[in-house]
Amino acid sequence: MQKRVSAAGPLRGSLSLAGDKSISHRYALIASIAEGPTRIRNYSTGADCHSTLGCVRALGIEVEGAGTEFVIHGRGLDGLRAPAADLDAGNSGSTIRMLSGILAAQPFTSRIFGDASLSRRPMQRIIQPLEEMGARIRSREGRFPPLEIHGGPLHAIEYALPVASAQVKTCILLAGLYAEGETAVTGPVASRDHTEVALREFGADLTVAPHRITVEGRPKLTALDLEVPSDLSSAAFFLAAALLVPGSHLAIRGVGINPTRAALLDFLRGMGARLRIPNLESRHGELVGEIEVEYSALEGGAVEGPLTAALIDEIPVLAVLGAATERGLTVRDASELRIKETDRIRTVVENLRRMGVAAEELPDGMAIPGHQKFRAAQFDSFGDHRIAMAFAVAALAAEGESVIEGAEAASVSFPEFWDTLERLGNPLKASRA
Ligand code: S3P
User: Which protein residue has the closest C-alpha to ligand 1 atom 16?
Assistant: First the structure.
């Protein structure tokens, strides 16, 4: 599908967005192995989180509901059943990596696969710790999906994470629920901590220190009544759009601003963004707030070191914003971006150049000079949701009409993206490719 986006007038109004993708995955997975029915409201509408629901259903868990509200009838740690067919993770790295931690402990073999993009993403990072815990996993070329997971009794390990990945951390913690004794994850554990927060809410016994997290095996997990905060990574596209288009003023309600995700807000503020978070509350251990944003002239900045991991999903749209700042934006220590849904260093730089924006590709990041003007252009999402949405935002600041090929990719995390953009007053045209 193609979308046509023209220069926007000010974006004004108030928005509610669907539930956070990261939290929805975790609630669905943990609810499946908790005891009793867990109700989840404001569940993510994204295709990725529906891949997770499809997998847990295929594992014998009853999932009632539709839209954004589901009841997951958990059957306890040992209640999953051998699936009748291969499990389909679609485009979702979170589904395959996190669910594998649970599959590794099952007394049956399962196969899990994904689409062409997921089939090229590295799985060695979960295969290694899960095999150390006692599972046997066959994969394509020893590192890519599909995975054939021969589960069985697991033993606790102490595992030093080689990369700051919340998906890998989660995979090991979920596997640790099945091991006797204490499983520990050490090293760069300061990635998003939704798993730690949710596991505690469901009743697991966890300790969290700056470089070490432990989980006790064989807890009794109890069903909950949950509401997922709105997705900050989805909100990021509208925050960036408002910061880019003069006269804009938006309020986004009920957004998850867990401190391990909210680096985006601090970073934008540090560049001069006028942001306010008037109403804060805590929901099941997750911080939630309303975000108000106004058009602001931004200074530019550098994303590097531990900040890169904290902003990893927002880098495509920050790169777009960076070109319009005073001093530009540099991104370093971001080689993980090369193994996301696309090589996001390459796809961002390619699309920026199509808009006449200078951008340099670095081995572990990119350098985008500031003070640049966007030219309307034809882009490609390359099948990557965050690339489709980041360049729709860029198109708002370009004179003339831009065309985005593969616009349907946005549905992976944010199916309402195009309608929301249109509702905010942007002249948007859709056409079939
Ligand atoms: C996620 C972790 C990040 C992020 C992804 C979601 C999660 O991936 O990019 O979109 O929910 O844990 P990594 O764990 O690979 O860094």
Answer: 165
Q: What is the mean pLDDT of residues 63-81?
A: 98
Of 152, 168, 155, 174, the residue nearest 105 (C-alpha): 152
Q: List alpha helices for 245-343, DSSP H.
A: 263-270, 306-310, 315-323
Is the Cβ–Cβ distance between 3 and 404 less than 8 Å? yes
Q: Which residues line ligand 1 (CB under 6 A)?
A: 22, 94, 165-167, 170, 192, 312-313, 336
**What's the pLDDT score for residue 189?**
81
Distance 139 CA to ligand 1 centre (A): 21
CA distance 102 to 173: 9
- The dihedral region occupied by 134, where left means phi > 0, alpha psi between -120 and 50, and beta the remainder, is left
β-pair partners for 324: none
Summary mean pLDDT of the chain: 96
> What mean pLDDT comes out for the span 97-114?
98
Q: pLDDT tens digits for 141-161?
A: 999 999 999 999 999 999 999
Residue 192 predicted with pLDDT over 90: yes
Which amino acid is present at 224? L
Is pTM beyond 0.90 here?
A: yes
CA of 52 to the centre of ligand 1 (A): 15
Q: Whose CA is nearest to atom 15 of ligand 1?
A: 165
Q: How far is the CA of 234 from the centre of ligand 1 (A)?
A: 14
Asked if residue 235 lies in contact with residue 43, where contact means CB atoms within 8 angstroms, the answer is no
Q: How far apart are CA 384 and CA 14, in angstroms?
A: 27
Q: For residue 167, which atom of ligand 1 is closest to its CA?
A: 14
Structure tokens at 422: 């249109």
Token readout for 188 is 């760069």
Q: Which domains does the chain have, with CATH numbers?
A: 2-18+229-431 (3.65.10.10), 21-227 (3.65.10.10)
For ligand 1, atom 13, which residue shows the shortest CA distance?
Answer: 165
CA–CA separation, 263 vs 311, rounded Å? 7
Complete DSSP assignment for 347-369: HHHHHHHHTT---EEETTEEEE-
Residues tagged active-site: 313
Q: Is the pLDDT of residue 332 over 90?
A: yes
SS3 category, 138: strand
Q: What is the largest CA-CA distance in the chain?
A: 62
Which residues fall within 8 angstroms of residue 1, CB to CB, at 6 or more apart?
406, 407, 408, 430, 431, 432, 433
Task: Report which residue type is found at 429.
Answer: K
Cβ atoms 96, 89 nearer than 8 A: yes
